[in-house]
Specification:
mainly beta; Jelly Rolls; five-stranded mixed sheet; binds (2S)-(carbamoylamino)(hydroxy)ethanoic acid; binds nickel (II) ion; Ureidoglycolate lyase; lyase; Ureidoglycolate_lyase_dom_sf; lyase activity
């Protein structure tokens, strides 16, 4: 592959903060509820929709091979989009800042088991990309009749490598 190379990094709240929120039990405030029989962990992921409703669905994603050829990113002008895995395998998260010429250089992150993400509304991101196995996700995003998908195809693909890959 001759695309421009990007190496994915472990997902962190700080690294992902410009693009949305990391959903996991670590790094946020938590406190006991229900008389101590449960604990509430705050991820601070905000849902945000315009001209529609917030809906919850299940996505079943097939795994991708690496190094991955990233040719396209997308964004949703009418809603944030959250992906919470229903199994403990990692998945790849790709985001890019917006520039006057479209998305900038993508940033790639690998989740650790049990982490999810919420993309802010209108944030450039790669599609759902499991790494090792078919994976189900709870997805929280926009439901309505507005066109909610904008795609950007890179003139030259990016080559995404997982951390520790030798090639
Ligand atoms: N198309 C669709 O619902 N999924 C994408 O938005 C995605 O981010 O995977
Ligand atoms: Ni999306």
């Amino acid at each position: 592959m001759t695309g421009r190379k990007i190496v994915a990094h472990p997902l962190t709240r700080e690294g992902f903060a410009p693009f949305g929120a990391v959903i996991d039990k670590e790094g946020g405030e938590s406190y006991p509820i229900n008389g101590g029989k449960a604990r509430r962990f705050h991820a601070r992921a905000k849902t945000d929709v315009l001209d529609g409703a917030v809906v919850l669905n299940i996505f079943e994603g097939a795994p991708y091979l690496f190094p991955l050829k990233l040719e396209l990113v997308e964004r949703h002008p009418h809603g944030s989009q959250a992906f919470m895995p229903l199994t403990l395998a990692p998945f790849l998260v790709v985001v890019a800042e917006d520039t006057p010429d479209g998305p900038g250089e993508p940033r790639a992150f690998v989740t650790h088991s049990g982490q999810g993400v919420s993309y802010n509304r209108n944030t450039w991101h790669g599609v759902l990309m499991p790494i090792e196995e078919v994976q189900d996700f709870l997805v929280v995003d926009y439901g309505g009749d507005q066109k909610n998908l904008e795609e950007f195809r890179f003139e030259q693909p990016w080559e995404i490598h997982l951390p520790g890959m030798t090639v």
